[in-house]
Design goal:
single chain, 254 residues, alpha+beta, 5-stranded mixed sheet
Length: 254
Amino acid sequence: MLQVWGIDGLPEIAAGDDLVGLIADAAAATLRDGDILVVTSKIVSKAEGRFVRADDREDAITAETVRIVATRAHGERTTRIVENRLGIVSAAAGVDASNTPTGTVLVLPVDPDASARALASGLRERTGARVGVLVSDTLGRAWREGQTDHAIGAAGVHVFDDLRGGVDAQGRPLLVTQPCVADELAAAADLVKGKTSGIPVAVVRGRGDLVGPLDLPGARSIVRPAERDMFRQGADEAFAAGRAAAIAEATSRP
């Protein structure tokens, strides 16, 4: 049976806070081997001091962007879908201006997998429970409205449940079935964390089969490599690029 619950009693996190100690104090009595903690990336960024002085959030988004995928204007506002330095494609590069001091924004952890490893290692040592850790962030999805939480950092957790090579209930071979269980767990945890509840950490129990050593591949392995990305540009941007290339070729002919 799968159980998911939020951890109460965590204070507002500030730069330099000991997240391991705070989470362990709040949850140590309940943690067991095989539990998976899902930690909202915002408190990881806060503890790591990832505040950026930026009166204009757009400047911070630009600084975190390595590739623009698509842009859409909405009156005076422009939505940018970009790839950030972590390889994640999302709106606004993960820059967060909510619940931050005036004149600052919060950017994602430098290395969410390393942050997850530090948390998992510390919690295992502090509590004696062999736990896994996911660091989650809220992302949109192509072709679907709304947002869900995804895993952007992972440690001690198998991020995929690789069923390739097996067979289905009718005996047919499974050739591509590889559920991203890290994202599924992150989304499940968000049902109890929510966006306004003040509960930034959740525990998932019942999938101890996914918990393993701390050197398992992290969430970076979820990001699809560029050579397998079939949607590198938005439709309008791809059309404009193709049109410009065709015009350039036509005008270069004698």
